[in-house]
Design goal:
Blueprint (H helix, E strand, L loop, with lengths): L13 H18 L1 E5 H17 L6 H15 L2 H14 L8 E8 L6 E7 L8 H13 L4 H13 L1 H18 L1
Antiparallel strand pairs: 1-3, 2-3
Helix pairs in contact: 1-2, 1-4, 3-4
């Protein structure tokens, strides 16, 4: 019986599972997103989030080296560890957790397995930066035509010398017609 056993074994022995998760974590760090099955993505999330947290907790030089060694013992990839501590660590320093996002992609054609994309949250330009930039101007422009008034004022202020005589001539032509 497996009462209270919360780990997903993924149909593998311990050594095979740890190698699989280490390789997937290295690829996720390198490429910032990977497509895999939903079960593997969920297992990878619990594997990689503590490793990313270790990049933030470092006060002394000894502690930094210790965290490097701990992360390397899980990943076994020097390039991925360097990328994690130099690029990803500083970018997620202000985030309290939840460094990954899992997006379901539907089923795989061959074996009907549920596919999912797991990605690092701070490295997605579509969800991260685009929403904040698009939402800020929308709030300012929806207030009772304020943007239209500003646009009309700036257009009138930019070309008073060239358009003013033409406007006066048009006004003079309109008055004799009455």
């Amino acid at each position: 019986m497996r009462h209270g056993d919360k780990i997903n074994n993924l149909g593998r022995k311990k050594a095979h599972r740890e190698a699989l998760l280490g390789n997937m974590a290295s690829q996720l760090i390198t490429h910032k997103r990977i497509v895999t099955t939903l079960a593997k993505a969920k297992a990878l999330r619990t594997f990689i989030e503590p490793l990313i947290t270790k990049t933030k907790k470092a006060d002394s030089k000894e502690q930094i080296m210790h965290n490097h060694r701990l992360v390397f013992s899980h990943l076994q990839d020097k390039a991925a560890v360097k990328e994690l501590f130099t690029v990803i660590g500083p970018k997620v320093a202000s985030r309290p957790g939840g460094y990954t996002r899992i997006i379901k992609l539907g089923i795989r054609v061959g074996d009907n397995a549920e596919r999912a994309m797991i990605e690092l949250v701070d490295f997605n330009e579509i969800y991260g930066k685009g929403i904040g930039e698009a939402a800020a101007p929308a709030k300012k422009t929806r207030r009772s035509g304020g943007a239209k008034k500003k646009a009309a004022e700036t257009a009138a202020a930019e070309a008073p010398a060239t358009e003013a005589p033409a406007a006066e001539a048009a006004a003079e032509e309109a008055t004799p017609a009455e």
